[in-house]
Amino acid sequence: MANFAKSTVPQFSVDVYQNEHLPEGGREVNAIVTVTATGGGTLGGAAGAPGHAPGRGPSAAVVVMVDCSGSMDYPPTKMRGARDATAAAVDALRDGTHFAVVGGTHVAKEVYPGGGRLAVADATTREQAKQALRRLSAGGGTAIGTWLRLADRLLSSADVAIRHGILLTDGRNEHEAPEELRKALDECAGRFTCDARGVGTDWEVKEVTGIASALLGTADIVADPAGLAADFTRMMETAMGKEVADVALRVWTPVGTSIRFVKQVAPAVEDLTGRRTEAGPRAGDYPTGSWGDESRDYHLCVEVPPAGLGQEMLAARVSLVVPQAGGTSRASEAERGGGSVRNLGAQGLVRAVWTDDMAASTAISPQVAHYTGQAELAQVIQKGLDLRKAGDFDGATAKLGRAVQLANASGNADTAKLLSKVVDVVDAATGTVRLKTKVAEADEMTLETRSTKTVRVKK
Hints:
Elements lengths: L10 E7 L3 E2 L5 E11 L21 E8 L9 H15 L6 E7 L3 E5 L6 E2 L2 H11 L10 H13 L5 E8 L8 H11 L4 E7 L5 H10 L4 E4 L5 H13 L3 E9 L5 E9 L3 E2 L5 E2 L4 E9 L2 E10 L8 E12 L9 H6 L2 E14 L3 H5 L3 H24 L3 H18 L2 H7 L3 E5 L4 E4 L5 H9 L10
Parallel strand pairs: 2-18, 4-5, 4-8, 8-9, 9-10
Antiparallel strand pairs: 1-3, 3-16, 5-6, 5-7, 11-15, 11-17, 12-13, 12-16, 14-15, 17-18, 19-20
């Protein structure tokens, strides 16, 4: 990890919630692992705010990628909103932050500062960047992979602790093959995090959410360009509040135990199972991206060898690590396996105890039950919307009805409100709904984009 002062690094803690009791022959162990980072002490803010002062936080680099394709001129408020939003994001940069602006069409161009380099944020460079933004105009196609590759080259030129991208698009990635975008995402994964936003309603939800998922950032819709500046300011303030990058959830399991899945379940559902990097004997690292003062929940499911009544075992040990080396943010597999990481000092234990007490072995942890429901909620919304688009209205009604039932049971009021724009709710408790005959495209896209957002379990 490069260039951060020890005083700014938050303290991490790990809490495990589970029912450790299994029936005789039971093999599946589920646990919710809550990771909390506190005490970093750096907050983002507008220019002149305390979080904006130089030296208040780890070194960081940010590249803003702005869609400049021809469709951004229809209506003209989109291009104007994108310029204003990027200017607002530049204003929210902390002094000393390295930054650049990229204009994206079927090619990627440096808008500011140019020359393959990054500027260092201060009053002068902010004003220069905003002057450069006024010259942005729309014209050309869309090839997002080229934008990401240029952002990666720029970000990797700085020896900093935090590398972050912000990407705005209004259309589909029509000027490069899907495999080209996937290849670019694979190359950039682990090198920087990236928040992605779609403005208007002519973009592809799965493309934007796929970018954010691959690069461990957030995704959202800004249907009205007038909302872009406020959203970009919030994104930049959050980026400026990050204290430590490349945190990995390290899971060790004993001989005979295998991991079924590792998922982030709050603040949004993100399956990390396939992103495991081997980290020595019986241990693997799962990437979680950059952290500030925040808390997230993870669902760990492991399969243990069967054991007799009264026996108990350690099913998994969870800890947090970051790379030791500077330079590019991703440690190689060999480095991870070789132990070139620093342990952040927090760990949690997942246990298994076999019992013939039926009440104990059949009880489901409230945390596990809640997040199992939240993960299902995300799945049935996606499936329901896909069926609706395919013309299977009976199937869509059944899936979206189940979504209403799950949102109601878990107290996910935000998702319930979004669902009510797509279905008429007859009985939320039973999931009885009717598909609306007319649905605004923005409402359907908002539900799809935000379907993975979850609510925390009630303590």
